[in-house]
Amino acid sequence: MNSTYASGGGIQRPLFALFCLLVILAGGVFILDQRGGPYHGASVLPQPSVAQVEVPAPLTVAKSEKPTTPAKLLHKMSSDPGSGIPASISSVVGKFDGTARGRALESYLIWAVHNAKSDAYIDSLLNSAAAKGHFSIPEALLTLSGRLDTPSLLTSIMLMVQNADPVRPETLATHQHFLQLSDSFAGLSLTYYGDPLSHARISDANGMAALMAEAQVGQVVEIPGL
């Protein structure tokens, strides 16, 4: 029995050795295969470059220019020595008030236009000066609220400088106007006749030559037809 075991053991040992050799060879082949594979020793491929996306510049919407105001136009024209702006201011103010106090109003206006003051600034300046007694507000430019109707005054000067004919309606029957705080006879004349200097036509028709400040909001004023 011992001889049989010995002979069997002699056969098993070479087989076991052969098995181990095969395992070793198989492992070597695997390792060599891995070394040549994509995960070992391979150079790192550069990442694909991301195309630079050009972001378009934001759209810029051109701002619409604000309408040019009378004060800006007057200042722009005053840069021309031959424009006669001071003379036009003097003439228009004289038509509303030819007294010495009217000349004070004229001086304020000439200074403000020369120094490029805005319409709002001029309105504040003139009403402040009137409140301090530096001049009296001309009756035609006195609003229902008791202030100077600066917009109508500046527009009157613009019409004088441009030598523009009043833009009159083709036909205007007698019209009834309900007074508002900002109304003056010059302003109503500008609105309905296109000419602030035709204010006497309205005040005379209503017997209110110097009573605008005493009128009431909503009071009816008759605008004579042309």
Protein model, in words:
The chain is mainly α and 226 residues long. Helix content is 50%, strand content 4%. It has 8 helices and 2 strands. It has a two-stranded antiparallel sheet. Helix 3 packs across helix 6 (150-162). The longest helix is centred in the first third of the chain and has 34 residues, at 2-35. The radius of gyration is 49 Å and the shape is elongated. The N and C termini lie far apart (152 Å). Residues 1-7 and 36-45 have low confidence and may be disordered.
Describe, in short, the structure shown:
The protein is mainly alpha-helical and about 230 residues long.
What's the SSE blueprint?
Layout: H1 2-35, H2 70-78, H3 85-96, H4 100-114, H5 119-131, H6 150-162, E1 175-178, H7 185-193, H8 199-206, E2 220-223
Antiparallel strand pairs: 1-2
Helix pairs in contact: 2-6, 3-4, 3-6, 4-5, 7-8
